[in-house]
Hints:
- This protein is mostly helical.
- The protein contains three helices and no strands.
Amino acid sequence: MEAIQSWVSDHKLTSIGAVWASAIGASLAYTKTRTPLKPSLRLIHARMHAQAITLVVLSGAAAYHYYEKSGSYKQEKNAS
């Protein structure tokens, strides 16, 4: 698990792009089997779903970065 965390930490944008692409694919696959929409509407819906998931991931990454920095700041302050 630590190896995955370090890779994601080193490749933040790649990770977010992979989540976005996965969300597009999953949404397209789901709507193809569930609803009789035209392909253009399925693509629009997939893009909206992917944007929402990307915003959640970006918010989580920002929160993780904030708490990671504040935790290391507290450790440095306690050490001195």
